[in-house]
Specification:
- The protein is an alpha/beta fold and 235 residues long.
- It folds into 2 domains: 93 residues, Beta Barrel (Elongation Factor Tu (Ef-tu), domain 3), CATH 2.40.30.10; 115 residues, Nucleotide-binding domain of ferredoxin-NADP reductase (FNR) module (Rossmann fold), CATH 3.40.50.
- The protein is built from 5 helices and 12 strands.
- Strands 1, 2, 3, 4, 5, 6 and 7 form a 7-stranded antiparallel sheet that branches. Strands 10-9-8-11-12 form a 5-stranded parallel sheet, with helices on both faces.
- Strand 9, helix 3 and strand 10 form a beta-alpha-beta unit.
- The longest helix has 13 residues.
- The chain binds flavin-adenine dinucleotide.
- The site of flavin-adenine dinucleotide has 22 residues, from strand 5, strand 6, helix 1 and strand 12.
C-alpha cells in the first residue's frame, strides 16, 4: 500500500488482470475486481483503464473508470453497466479468467489532497470515478465537507453502492449523501440550498446527462472553473 496522501501515476503500460470478484450491485450494474499481474501500477483517483477485447478476429478496446481508491493499486475495482457487447463480456467473465488491459489514463483526477468543499453528482455507473475519489478522501481523513448526490436512471430505485455510502455517512461527519430515488438529481440539488460558489464540483453521467447536470449547477450559481466532469459514451 502506498502512503495515503501521496499520489503518483505510473506511465501507461500493458498489464494482465485476473478476475477475483464479480458481484451485482443492481440488476444491471456489476462490481468487478481485478488483480494485476505486476505491482508497479499507480493511478490517480478518477483515472481509467482500457481492457482489450477480441471479437470475430478483431482486437479492440473500451475505456472503464477505476472505482476503487488508489490506496491499493494492484487490485482494481470496475463498476460496469450492462449495455452492449463489451460491458456484457466484462460482466460475464468468471473468477480466475484473465483480461489484458492498458492504463492508467484520464484527466478527471485528483493529484493532491484538495482544500475546499466538494460536491459530487453521479448517475448510473458514472459513480465509478467519483467512488475512487471519495473513498480516497475518506481514507486520508479529509476534513472539508463532501456531498454526494446519486441517481440511477437504469433502475431508479436501485443505486450502486448505496449501503457503502450510508455506512460512510454514519462514520464520517463531513460526508453528506443524498440518494435521488424517484426524483432527478437536479431536484435534490435544488432542495439543498448549498452555496455553490464554495464547492469544487465533479459530475459523471451517461451521454447528454453530464451536460444537463452541468447546466443545473451553473444555474444554481457555480462557475465553470469550479467544474470537472466526465461523459460516459461508447467509442
Ligand atoms: C472516460 C470514460 C469512462 C467510462 N467508464 C465506464 C465505467 O466505469 N463503467 C461503465 O459501465 N462504462 C464506462 N464507460 C463506457 C464504456 O467505455 C463503454 O462505452 C460501454 O460499456 C458501452 O460499451 P458496449 O460495447 O457494452 O456497448 P455499445 O454497444 O458500445 O453501447 C451501447 C449504448 O450504451 C451507451 N452507454 C455507454 N456507456 C454506458 C453506460 N456506462 N451506461 C449506460 N449506457 C451506456 C452508449 O451511448 C450506447 O448507446 C466509460 C466511457 C468513457 C468515455
Amino acid at each position: 500500500m502506498q502512503s495515503l496522501d501521496i499520489l503518483r501515476r505510473s506511465p501507461t503500460a500493458d498489464y494482465t488482470a485476473t478476475i477475483v470478484g464479480s458481484i451485482f450491485l443492481t440488476s444491471t450494474i456489476k462490481s468487478i475486481r481485478l488483480q494485476l499481474d505486476r505491482d508497479d501500477f499507480r493511478f490517480l483517483p478518477g483515472q481509467s483503464i482500457w481492457p482489450k477485447f477480441e471479437r470475430d478476429g478483431r482486437t479492440f478496446s473500451k475505456i472503464y473508470s477505476i472505482a476503487s481508491s488508489p490506496s491499493c493499486c494492484s487490485e482494481l475495482e470496475l463498476c460496469v453497466s450492462r449495455v452492449g457487447w463489451s460491458s456484457a463480456f466484462l460482466q460475464d467473465l468468471a473468477i480466475g479468467q484473465t483480461l489484458p488491459l492498458r492504463g492508467p489514463y484520464g484527466l478527471m483526477t485528483l493529484s493532491e489532497l484538495p482544500n475546499r468543499p466538494r460536491l459530487y453528482i453521479a448517475e448510473g455507473s458514472g459513480i465509478a470515478p467519483l467512488k475512487s475519489q471519495i473513498d480516497w478522501l475518506y481514507e486520508c481523513g479529509y476534513q472539508h465537507p463532501v456531498w454526494l448526490i446519486q441517481a440511477n436512471p437504469e433502475t431508479p430505485d436501485q443505486l450502486p453502492y448505496q449501503s457503502h455510502w450510508q455506512q460512510r455517512q454514519a462514520s464520517w461527519a463531513d460526508f453528506h449523501y443524498r440518494a435521488a430515488i424517484a426524483q432527478c438529481p437536479e431536484r435534490v440539488l435544488g432542495g439543498l440550498s448549498l452555496n455553490m460558489a464554495a464547492f469544487d464540483i465533479v459530475i459523471c453521467a451517461v451521454g447528454d446527462r453530464t451536460a444537463q447536470l452541468e447546466d443545473a449547477v451553473l444555474a444554481l450559481g457555480a462557475r465553470a472553473e469550479q467544474l470537472q466532469s466526465e461523459k460516459f459514451i461508447a467509442f
